[in-house]
Design a protein that fits this description.
The N and C termini lie far apart (57 Å). Helix 8 runs antiparallel to helix 14. It is globular, with a radius of gyration of 19 Å. It is mainly alpha-helical. The longest helix is centred in the last third of the chain and has 25 residues.
């Protein structure tokens, strides 16, 4: 354990010595499938900090969806426009988070209360019944909720929800340890716990779009902030009870489910009092 602690200290020092723009490059390379690595390849240590810049990638994916929804709706039916926007996001991210969501449903659906079985199922590259059903219902709800919102509102909503959900989900790595401790000891591939300054940076990255959306649409900020936060906390309790730690799949799944909660809340508001 002393040797492991020493190695962790060395790794922490090497991360702190990396440039801030290297860590941002690492986040875009890690969370998207766009060839950013052709422009610049950051040091490997930077990939431990990608969660600290996760909401920045939401400005790319959410922004791309918003642009497609707004301008696409001028020449195409809203249903077609939203499906194209979702497809573009899947292409940008390589369905990284959707893969985590499928593994999450498979593991928590089929693993019962057996921690190791849940982890083994989530690590299996094959998708099971729970994963298929979970993805189908998720994508249907995603498309239906966005379609139910006026295009100009939906364009800003997807950007706000994308960045906000990534900011909220990043707290998982502070609230619990990495679940696969044996892999942590061998590979050192887990995200590092970020500092208070990094937490402030996450808020700067993830809150502005949501606050602007709330102000622009005249929405109740308590509803828009606290309902997704409550869903996040419920998912945290579930993950803690089952695994006593997070995995990458858990982070991806929680991110998408928190984002979907924002869409459901806005859709409900629009249904009761059209925006």
């Amino acid at each position: 354990m002393r040797e492991l602690h020493y190695l962790c200290t060395i790794m922490q020092m090497s991360i702190d010595q990396t440039k801030w723009y290297d860590r941002i490059w690492a986040a875009f390379i890690f969370f998207t499938r766009l060839p950013f690595w052709r422009l610049h390849e950051p040091p490997k240590e930077c990939y431990k900090t990608v969660v600290e810049h996760w909401p920045l990638t939401g400005w790319l994916t959410g922004g791309a969806m918003g642009v497609i929804i707004y301008f696409g709706s001028l020449v195409l039916p809203m249903t077609v426009t939203v499906l194209l926007a979702i497809a573009v996001r899947l292409l940008i991210t390589g369905a990284l988070h959707e893969d985590g969501l499928a593994d999450f449903f498979d593991g928590f659906g089929g693993g019962g209360n057996d921690r190791q079985r849940i982890l083994d199922i989530m690590k299996d590259s094959r998708i099971g019944t729970y994963g298929v059903l979970g993805l189908v219902f998720y994508e249907l709800l995603l498309a239906a909720t966005i379609i139910s919102i006026p295009a100009y509102c939906a364009a800003f909503m997807v950007l706000a929800a994308d960045t906000f959900s990534k900011m909220v989900t990043s707290q998982l790595i502070l609230m619990m340890p990495y679940a696969r401790r044996e892999e942590e000891a061998k590979a050192k591939t887990v995200y590092r716990r970020f500092s208070a300054w990094a937490g402030v940076s996450l808020a700067i990255q993830g809150l502005p779009a949501m606050l602007f959306f709330i102000w622009m649409m005249g929405l109740d900020w308590q509803v828009m902030i606290f309902i997704p936060a409550i869903v996040f906390y419920g998912l945290y309790l579930l993950i803690w009870r089952k695994l006593h730690g997070y995995t990458g799949d858990c982070c991806g799944a929680v991110c998408l489910l928190v984002e979907l909660t924002v869409y459901l809340v806005v859709s409900a508001i629009n249904y009761m009092n059209p925006l």
